[in-house]
Design a protein that fits this description.
By secondary structure, the protein is mainly α. The protein has one domain. The chain is 72% helix and 0% strand. About 4% of the residues have low confidence.
């Protein structure tokens, strides 16, 4: 018999996929305009909201059960990052701060997140009992989620620019916002993510006692590398007007470093080496 957690996780996954399919259908059927009609698709947002609620219910016992303090393993952390990503997308879509194509990517590529703790559970890394650590973890995951959305926005922008510059138009292009708008959204997301990443690194210094004993060397170094890459991108934009594919490449490189810093290092440390790291 399926457990309550597994049921709501499955419902969340199906809701995310249905919302992504709904957006894809709207993109395919729009033949003109500036894309605002697809972005305002209330049905897709309601379906996604239902997925967010179901996803939250699925994670709730593990996150807030008083008998079992919040001890996020890698699977739960991945799932929580997916939840925050979709939740931020839902707000951004309502405020029209993101292209619907990026939203489709966000929903489809994070649809697996609710099922990760159900399918795979790794031993807890550390028990988070202090409010300051909770705050640090929240800032870190929010920054990661926002930079994830920035990558989705960058991919849509890159595809759209490639199609236009190489004279390979498709009917779907009519449903997307202009390149200028897409680029503005991209740098807005990168700027906000960079700000939260900066706060995460600063707050993380509070919890480093022995960087070697806590197994934080690789995580800290790669996080700083990601911070430097995103910072250089924003500086290059302001100083030299970087844009287009150059901006996309810097964004992708920065996100790759950040993803490896957190999830890659934890995968190797916890799964392959059977060790634990303390939050930083």
């Amino acid at each position: 018999m399926i457990s309550t957690t597994s049921f709501f996780a499955l419902v969340a996954t199906l809701a995310y996929l249905l919302a992504a399919i709904r957006i894809a259908q709207r993109i395919a059927t729009v033949s003109g305009g500036d894309g605002s009609a697809a972005e305002r698709d209330r049905l897709a947002r309601r379906i996604a909201l239902g997925g967010i609620v179901s996803h939250t219910i699925a994670l709730w016992p593990s996150l807030f059960d008083q008998a079992d303090p919040f001890a996020p393993d890698l699977a739960m952390t991945l799932s929580l990052a997916g939840l925050i990503t979709v939740a931020i997308f839902a707000v951004a879509a309502e405020l029209e701060w993101m292209d619907q194509g990026a939203g489709m990517l966000a929903l489809s590529l994070t649809s697996f997140a609710p099922l990760v703790p159900v399918i795979w559970t790794s031993p807890p890394a550390v028990t988070l009992s202090e409010a300051t650590i909770h705050l640090h973890a929240t800032i870190s995951l929010a920054g990661y989620a926002i930079l994830t959305l920035a990558v989705f926005q960058a991919l849509v922008f890159s595809w759209q620019e490639f199609r236009i510059r190489n004279h390979r138009p498709t009917p779907a292009l009519a449903s997307f916002a202009s390149l200028e708008t897409q680029e503005r959204w991209l740098f807005q997301w990168v700027g906000l993510g960079f700000f939260l990443l900066s706060l995460s690194l600063i707050s993380g210094l509070m919890f480093i006692d022995d960087i070697l004993a806590q197994h934080l060397v690789h995580k800290t170094a790669l996080s700083c590398l990601a911070w430097a890459i995103f910072g250089t991108l924003l500086w290059g934009r302001r100083r030299y007007g970087w844009r287009g594919q150059q901006a996309v490449r810097w964004c992708l490189f920065g996100f790759a470093a950040l993803a490896v810093a957190y999830f890659g290092s934890r995968l190797i440390l916890e799964v392959l080496l059977d060790r634990r790291w303390y939050p930083a």
